[in-house]
Amino acid sequence: MLKKLLFATALFTYSLSAFGQSADSLTIVKTKWHKNRIAKQVVLFRHHFDQKNLFAANENISFLEIKNTGRKAVFAFGAEEKELITTSNFGLRNTAIAAVNGNFFDVKNGGSVDFVRVNGKVINTNRLDKNGNRARHQEAAVVIENGKISIKKWDGTTDWETKITAQDVLLNGPLLTLNDVDETLDRTGFNRLRHPRTCLGIKPNGRVILLTVDGRNENSAGMSLFELTKLMRWLGCTSAINFDGGGSTTLWVNGMPDNGIVNYPTDNKKWDHEGQRKVANVILVKKQARR
User: Fold this and answer.
1) Tally of domains in the chain
2) Model pTM?
């Protein structure tokens, strides 16, 4: 009798969980996103789930979808070796269409704590732990070649990133999904708890999603990396990688209201567009230079 009761309870719990996932995925599929065509091959999507109707929470999601052809709209990195600059200022000084914050950095002293190479020049190298081990955000990379962006996974070697032939390499992570296979994430607080998130995903048709989820506010809870993985899948991505988040999470689009800040950065602990945090590097979307 006890075994039957335990089995029934487990089955009921699983059914509720599966129902929740199904309802959430359906919510995303049926969402009428607010769309703006920003430039050729670049579209902005926004929606505020304000009825606690995604993961049983309020969520404010903004993302760009970009054709990853290396033509018309191209990808680039903006980076500083030690200085920290807001995402919007990175975008403006690089005459970009749009920008999102990049990888993890030293808040006190500036500069990324992960390997960054821009135009063939190494800007920052990995800072390893006291045992010489990599952080999870050093086990994958976003790579740009001829204006097109891709995701690569660490091969386990100590000098992996230096052997990548591309001129532009930025380590980041954790990796969420690669080629339709979800990565295994541990249950640390960083992964399990809800925070503002920045993410890059790639769809089977090659289109790229640059996404922000706001958090740390009653208007938007943020997401765990487990929830973020599901969201990116529901948006059609078969590869996805997490970026630095929290107070760094910022999506900037040139010419938009509020000085181009689309989301609600949290560094000022207010629900407005003023709370940008200065960062070490960004992902840029730029118009292809005329030849």
Assistant:
1) 1
2) 0.92
